[in-house]
User: Fold these one by one.
Assistant:
Number 1:
Amino acid sequence: MFRRNKAFILVLMATIAFTGFMLTKWSNLDNVDAREDSHYTRIKTFTESLSLVKNNYVEEVDENELVYGAIKGMLTSLDPHSSFMPPETFKEMQIDTRGEFGGLGIQIGIKDRLLTIIAPIDDTPAFEAGIKAGDKIIKIEGDSTKDISLHDAVSKLRGKPGTPVTITILRKDVEKPMDITIIRAIIKLKSVKTRVIDETIGYVKLTQFQEKSAEDMRKALEKLEAKGITALVLDLRNNPGGLLKGAVDITSQFLPPGKLVVYIKGRNGEQTEFNTSNGNKFYSYPMIILVNEGSASASEIVAGAMQDWGDAVVLGNQTFGKGSVQTVIPLSDGSALRLTTARYYTPKGRSIQTTGITPDIVVKLDTEKGAATHQIIREKDLDKHLINETVSDEEVDEQEKNEDTDIIELPSNLQDENDSQLQHAVDLLKTWRVFKKL
């Protein structure tokens, strides 16, 4: 995530009440005046409405709540990833990026105006309670979630660790809504998990891109190298992403210095590039990256960069397809905007917005070995998602024809012998080793 300069923040703070204000330079004075007249007309409309509600509503109202509500409404009219964060929510978000927070352990989104589970996070209360991707949360503690914002939903779902929260869900192929009570807990995400497979193949599972993920990855690779590994499997399945810096820093551990990892482009067309770090050690093992429909954002940046440079084989299912950049902009009262400010592109100029990363080798999990199907949720299924301007409608339609509407769930306790994707990756690396000898 990025922070805009102070001038941009001040302009944005001054115009927070409006949906239509454009940060554009004008060379014609008449156009400037006309634009400013229109701008101040909208300001007048807003302040008139605020005053009328404050003075005439049937009950006393909190002016702060009215303003926050207006800002939330403004951001809700944009894409599914732009949102307003009151001070307490902003603090929670900062805790999230450090890898520890209180809650249930779920990723949520809005689909068809309903609060929808994108995926439960492994080894969390929600996962243990049997929550599945595609479940619709229709009530929280008996209150309807119709038209609820994501951050309002998060506020209701989070609470003091050890306290219960009851959610009512609709699930595909289940006739009646189900009430499920989950005990809140401190969610501690260990972002990097490692082991050695078949004596010489290193396995690294990255669960999320946090502030310390790159350093954790560096330590994990050092330990694996000390054990004499000759190949690597990087598992990004069900990794929802996180910090862009983390994605660049982790990719830097697998590509030479100065290689383009990703570039971003905002509304004005200005391009900003992010290259691998200089001077850091990088590992050039034969490498396979595992992805699925739960691999999003920063995960897709890593997979896309390695795929574009030909330094890894990507294996699994089509990824989530989130190709937009959110900038967190703090405001003067401790609140913040999470605003979509750019799209990002792989080194070869691919935008993965709505389309995702297509694996080099498509491999599905085997339902006969303990996996179960559930409804697939991707970026293109979320309300008001951004389009992918680099592909045609025909290409998107063709991809959708080749995608399953149901996907196979990846249980956290899936044994290696039942994980057909992992087994396929291991077999490929063994074959790689054999052919290298030849």
Number 2:
Amino acid sequence: MSVTGKIKIFSGNANRELAAEICGQLGIELGKASTERFSDGEFNFQIEENVRGHDVFIVQPTCPPSDRHLMELLIMIDTFVRASAERVTAVIPYFGYARSDKKDRPRVPIAAKLVANLITKAGAQRVLTIDLHASQIQGFFDIPVDHLYAAPIVVDYFKANPIENLIVVAPDTGGAERARAYAKRLNAGLALCDKRRERANEADVMNIVGDVSGKNCLIIDDMCDTGGTICKVAEALHKAGANEISACFTHGVLSGKAVENISGSYLKKVIVTNTIPISDNGMPLVKGGKIEVLSVAELLASAIRSIHDETSVSSLFI
């Protein structure tokens, strides 16, 4: 699939491998730019080719270190606007700060709205993202947002690698709708965990709703951070009599002791996508075969082509 015309794709330092893969899908070269830093750590960005009148797409997930990658994105957007790009689209496969989407406690920020304001104020005219933690974040932007889902990629994987006697599990009540969509497309049963979170990054699974005894479970969620929640869900499923337990996440943040937690858990396999690059921390699990990475490059490339050609991207939605 080749794109002709005034389209250019650039990348910051967050996930250059994914940007290069997207360019390969589109049959174009990755845009030339300097993404170095001054000795004090400030981002020193310069475009090294003409972008005047071009349709520019910046591939930059705001994954850890989130502040660093977010600042890179804002500076790049500003640079392309000042370089007279015709349109600037922020391609944010993983949207950081998405968990701070509401005031669920006194005196806390709504950081997702703040980040949306920053991206818009910097000059982005469109946002392309995958599996937001909360769908309502689309409404935080005053510019068009194309919110894609990794579900078609994951469903195709499990149709090609079917699991017998499968039941899909939502790790909490908030993920029930997502899990139900997967269960329907995989012709599988559905169960969920009643979870009570006492503090950030810590969760206690209270009980399993649904019969998982003797069944192979697939836990579905949008992201895995420290792995604490998912490991406790897997433990609860094991105690409830589940057979083999796997998990699937769009965004493999894998921070802190995530690798250690998953390695010592009841999880047989973990499926993630490359919205976030698997860090060196995660490589032992990759080499050991416990984590498998699916690519979202073709999905994003198709969306970028549709946006550039001003055609509908609705066929890419689940």
Number 3:
Amino acid sequence: MSVYTEVERTELVAFLSDYAVGNLVSYEGISDGIENTNYFVTTEQGQYVLTLFEQHDFEEMDYFLDVMTFFYQHGIPSAHPEADKQGHYLKTLSGKPAALVGRLDGRGVSDIASVAQCQAVGEVLGKMHVAGSAFSERRVTERGAGWRQDTAERVLPKLDVESAKLMTAELAFQSGYSTLNLPSGLTHSDLFRDNALFEGDNLKGIIDFYYACDEYLLYDLAVTVNDWCIDESGLLEADRYQALMSAYTRQRELTLAETNHWNLVLRAAALRFWLSRLQDKHFPREGELTQIKNPDAFLKILRQHQQQPLIVNAA
């Protein structure tokens, strides 16, 4: 979440007039995240998050809003889009697709996650994967193996010799990723600590479904593990890892193939975010408030997976 498109107050007042949410009280830009323009909006009737989608067209956005509505209707604590007076979830603001979503209680986890928070996230992710089997719409991932290869070719000239050598070797190691025989389905694909809202250790909701797509369910789990289970040193830690994995597998057992390919998929998830952060660092987009996250955090995790492969070991 960032601010790439500045919205004037008069524009927002006119936009909100199509919703039954009362008059605008205040609004402010959100600097967390990196993809879309986001504002906190307060009206006479409540608090909302306004998102202007910088890289998606209307057809894609219909899918994301359907995903959010689906999970909300299936008992997953998640943000729900507001319909305007004509029943539409998606509108145009400042020339961009835009949606107004109810703001959930709680805050993202800005520091190291607790063991209890890891357990809560593992449980809800397992429930999402089970529920998602009934979701009928399909969307191919935009950040799969092809994207990783193309993005690597773009950023490799910017890297030091050692990092470039590591990336090239890792791409070769992951060359068979697309042909793995693993369960696939609806995934969040970006379930980072700032996309789950907590009050203490109480999970209030999951947000930011704008990378949702069809992917290996194991990949979604790997993305989550790589962010939630780190300790103060930035490396994966056993108690957090065990809590998340145990909670997840109580909802959905892993197949033998998933267990066998766990290290490869963990490395693919780490590489994906190392690459995207390198791209944001070396080829930044202009924005009023933006946040460029440290690529080295995922290089560190990738190296850990290379040197100390994790086993599933959850019951």
